[in-house]
Specification:
This protein has 108 residues and is mainly α. It contains six helices and two strands. The protein binds iron/sulfur cluster.
């Protein structure tokens, strides 16, 4: 198993989201909510009502930490994962000095 430590969370980089997150709360909700338009300016995006709602749903999901970590180590992932937006994950990567790899690189 390939893994990466992010803070005190160890992330399996070989996770298959369709299997590991099969009981995810977002599975039952319109996916549009989790993929808002990220081209808006950062403040407008963060204050978006749908973004807040998606984050709230993630907060109630048992996969929140694992899901956020999964997306943090994959810079190409967009949308809200584990209650984090793409800009927030970018900031986390910068803070933790994580470059991240593409899906292809993880699978190689
Ligand atoms: S934390 Fe959020 S995005 Fe991740 S599986 Fe749960 S509901 Fe879906």
């Amino acid at each position: 198993m390939k893994s990466v430590n992010i803070g005190n969370v160890t992330v399996n980089t070989e996770l298959n989201t369709t299997i590991e997150f099969r009981d995810a709360l977002c599975k039952y909700i319109d996916p549009e909510l989790f993929f808002p338009d990220e081209r808006r300016n950062s403040n407008e995006y963060q204050d978006n009502e749908n973004v807040r709602l998606a984050k709230k749903i993630c907060g109630d999901c048992k996969h929140e930490i694992e899901c956020a970590a999964y997306a943090i180590i994959r810079p190409n992932i967009v949308g809200i994962w584990g209650g984090t937006t793409s800009p927030e994950r970018k900031a986390i990567r910068r803070k933790l000095n994580i470059v991240g790899l593409t899906e292809e690189e993880y699978e190689a």
